[in-house]
Amino acid sequence: MYKRTLLQLVIMAIMIMATASCGDYLDSNDEPEKPLPVEPEHLPMFQFNESGIPYRYGQPTIPKDIQETLKKEFIGYGWKWMQTNEILETGYVKHEGYYDGMYGVNPPDFYYMKSDGADAEYVKYSYSDAQNQKVYYPHNCTFNPETGVILNGSGNFRIWTIYKLSGKWFMSWFETIGKRKNPDGTYHDVWLVSQFVRMTDTELKEMQKDYTLYEGYVSLF
After folding, report:
1. Does the predicted model carry a pTM greater than 0.90?
2. Are 219 and 141 in contact (CB under 8 A)?
């Protein structure tokens, strides 16, 4: 019951952020695939810049208050996955979850251990279908709180918001998963938007007990 109530509050908060300036970015001629809100998360519409990178409609840069919050509340904590959706070329978000019904790829949890300037370290926790067990992968990366960009050898992640609700911290980021062919033969990047909730120290320690180092792990740095 508590989990359901908390999720409802999260959805309400995102709805407020998304609709506060709705009239500024929704064209009357543009219709989403389905009526908003997006289930199970209500997400705002996004745009793509000239480099094909998404951002919240009308907000190409991260606001100063979110930059400052990232510096204080992101590094040093574990983040539990909640939901992932694909961003369509129109800027709307697909309703079905990206990982729904998928085999071989599973949603990850993260622990961002520390940051020394731009250099940071994190651990990725996920279920391995190949090994039939929960495994973790340590990585090095770079992190820029002013842009929200996290770069490592296997991906490009861009945090676009972080906020506190009912005593819990939530974070959302964009990530690339590959390219899709266009009708003219060119390709465009496929982007996902994912939601995470910050773990308590106790939750992080309990989760870590269930994971073992991936046997085929090779550092990308």
Report:
1. no
2. no
